Amino acid sequence: QVQLVESGGGSVQPGGSLRLSCAASGSIAGIDAMGWYRQAPGKQRELVAAVTRFLRTNYADSVKGRFTISRDNAKNTVYLQMNSLKPEDTAVYYCNARSYFSSGSYDYWGQGTQVTVSS
Q: How does pLDDT run across 96-113, given as a tens digit for each residue?
């Protein structure tokens, strides 16, 4: 099992910044990709950004140039720096860790942290 603990959410005005952190513990040896998803009210959960253990990154088009994902493998922690925030970024943000096994993959999820962008 993998436990993910998120921190850093909150409320900010449009154009502001927030930094999310997610620390993994437990059976972390098998973790490959870590990332952030978000879910706004009435919408499906969507990928925001992800980073592999080799630090290859992937971003949703809507956040490219504004958000930066990073990962500290020594601390088993992934970060999401969010700049130039927009009201449409408002959502619950979930940390994700994906482990691969011979039989497939498994996703672990954090409890979610609220990000609200409003004037």
A: 999 988 888 899 999 999
